[in-house]
Amino acid sequence: MAYITFLTAGGQRIAISPRNQKSTFRCFQDGLIAESRLGEDDVSYEKYRAKRGCQGVAQSPITIVRSVQKELDRLRDAPFSKLDKSLLSLAKRPKFSKPKCFKWFLGDLRLAELGDFSVVYATDDRTKHLRVLMIAVGRWVPSRKSGKFFASTQKNRRQTRPLGASDRVRWAGGKRTDRFVGYSGETAKELFSYPAEGQHEALVAGFREGIQAKAAQKGERALTKEERVVLMVAALEEEVNNGGFDQFFRNSSRRFAPQITHSLRRIRCSRMAKIAQRGVKALRLPTLSVTRIEATMSKDSAERDKELERCDQLFYNAQTRQNIARRLYAFVRANSKPSSSKIQFDLRPI
User: Where exactly are the structural domains of the chain?
Assistant: First the structure.
């Protein structure tokens, strides 16, 4: 008899018999995915839904992990609007089930069926904080109908092999187009072969992923000072645009706080550097360290939160004058010349 075996993060090894596979496989799969995301950084759902044009305020705080944000980015506006209403209702009055298999997983996971969607989340009974770990189209929806939910199912389908540079671009008459779709193992030289105008953000994201791939293979000590600048500034822009300075200091990006002001000055973003310095001062710490920042952010402070919100607004307003992506791209190009070679990676993702 062929069994399917699961190994949870808690060390539990579970074998499912063929007679139960059909009814329990999806449940175990959802639990494994949600459990694997417990360590991911959080994103403020309130700010995410505001970016999607939703109105109203959640009665209870909701956060989503990075992977869920990517899943929501794929959703069309109509199904997202329905899901948003269901999530707000869920946060106000949780209605959930806890499948028997969930007792083997870490994080006290809960499952809620919200219309066409299945949502796996965890809650804090004391603060009523809702943390969404996974969102998927309900089991009954046939794959051929998924187009009404997702903007593009083919584009986001997971590939079965590592992608090469030619796999992620469109071809016309046998020639590569100038549109950069996304990073797929290109070298710095290959990324520079794309025209920058109109796609600075996409190319900077490509450089960031290339540097991260280098760090994964060779270790962070192998990174140059210039490559670290790219990672720091890109992390700041991503975190602040998604959830403000509060999110930058709460997530793993807080390790960049001691050097972020200097990094912004290096790419000639003096206005942004002053705003970041103001955000750092709002923490009221004599010296910056990951441990001290984490301890400070774990304590409630209305004065600090108000000051960080001011910094958020200043940051958003300053982006019209100082485009970080453009200046970061110029910094990368200046430090990737053969004479300097301070930003070079020719590694393929592991």
Answer: 16-139, 176-334
Structure tokens at 125: 């009974």
Q: Quick one: which of 114, 80, 83 has its CA closest to 97?
A: 114
- In CATH, which superfamily holds the domain spanning 16-139? RelE-like (3.30.2310.20)
Amino acid at 259: Q
Q: Report residue 288: phi and psi, to 5°.
A: -95, 130
- Give residue 289's Cα distance to chain centre: 23
What does the block give as tokens for 40?
A: 């991911």
d(CA 235, CA 252): 10
What is the number of H-type helices and E-type strands within the chain? 12, 9
Length of the chain: 350
Per-residue pLDDT of the chain (350 residues; tens, 9 = 90+): 455 565 665 566 666 555 555 556 667 777 778 888 888 888 888 888 888 877 766 556 888 988 888 888 878 888 888 888 888 888 877 665 666 667 767 777 888 877 778 888 887 666 667 888 888 775 433 344 444 444 443 333 333 333 344 433 333 334 456 777 777 777 888 888 888 888 888 899 888 888 888 888 788 888 899 999 999 999 999 889 878 899 899 988 999 999 999 999 999 999 999 999 999 999 999 999 999 999 999 999 999 999 999 999 999 888 877 789 899 999 998 888 655 556 665 543 33
CATH for 176-334, options being 1.20.1420.60, 3.10.20.310, 3.10.50.40, 3.20.20.140: 1.20.1420.60
Written as six digits, the tokens of 136 are 């998927």
